[in-house]
Every structure is written in C-alpha cells, then in structure tokens.
Amino acid sequence: MSKLATEMLKGTLEGIVLATLSGRPAYGYEITAWLREQGFTDIAEGTIYALLVRVEKRGLVDVEKVPSEKGPPRKVYSLNAQGRKYLEEFWRTWGFLTERLEQLREGGK
C-alpha cells in the first residue's frame, strides 16, 4: 500500500471497522483477517486492537467475553445503538466527501 493510501486509510479505518461490525459481532483477529481478505493487506493486528479499545471507550460497541479454546477469553465486539448512529453519520459524511471529490476531479462543475 502506498504512503498516500495508508494516510487516507487512517482517517477512515474507524468507519470501516464499525461497518464490519454492523454485519455481525466479531473479535479483533476476525476483523483483521476479513479486512485483509478485502484487500487491506497492510493492516496490522495491533492497529485494529487499538482502534477497538478506542471505540469501546467511546461507547460505540458492546463487548462480550467469550471463552477461547486457547488462552484467555476473547473479546467479541458488536455495534450498539450509539455505534449505529455514528456509522450513519460516517456514511453521510463519506457521501458528501466523495461527491465533492468527484466534482473536483471533473473540473469543478
């Protein structure tokens, strides 16, 4: 991934992870693996875990500890009502930005 793509991803990764959780609850490694399957191959697991801690502290997700076959229980994250509201705002903002960027690309029409 180019440096520019990495920088742009930083600004949108929170919304991407919340969108992932809107489909179903998941734990950190599942989210990382799914994002890598979608082409985000340079995403580090640590980046996702740090982001999950932040969204948990902000009250955007609910967390359930689920027993694991190996090691400590896993934290399974699910999007709650506040997270869904935030995700709706993310998509509205994304739509606004993409429209404006398209206008710029087309010469400011």
Structure, described:
The chain has helices at 3-23, 28-37, 45-57, 81-105, and strands at 26-27, 61-66, 74-79. It has 109 residues and is an alpha+beta fold. It has a three-stranded antiparallel β-sheet with strand order 1-3-2. Strand 2 and strand 3 (74-79) form a beta hairpin. Helix 1 runs antiparallel to helix 4 (81-105) and helix 2 (28-37) crosses helix 3. 16% of the residues are buried.
- Strand composition percent: 5-15%
Strand order in space, largest sheet: 1-3-2
Q: Any idea what the radius of gyration is?
A: 16 Å
Shape: globular
**Helix proportion range:** 55-70%
Uncertain parts: none
SSE order, as H and E? Answer: HEHHEEH
**Major pleated sheet:** 3 strands, antiparallel
Give descriptors for this structure:
109 residues, 3 strands, globular, 63% helix, alpha+beta, three-stranded antiparallel β-sheet, 4 helices, single chain
Task: Set down the secondary structure blueprint.
Layout: H1 3-23, E1 26-27, H2 28-37, H3 45-57, E2 61-66, E3 74-79, H4 81-105
Antiparallel strand pairs: 1-3, 2-3
Helix pairs in contact: 1-4, 2-3
What's the short story on this structure?
Helices cover 63% and strands 13% of the residues.
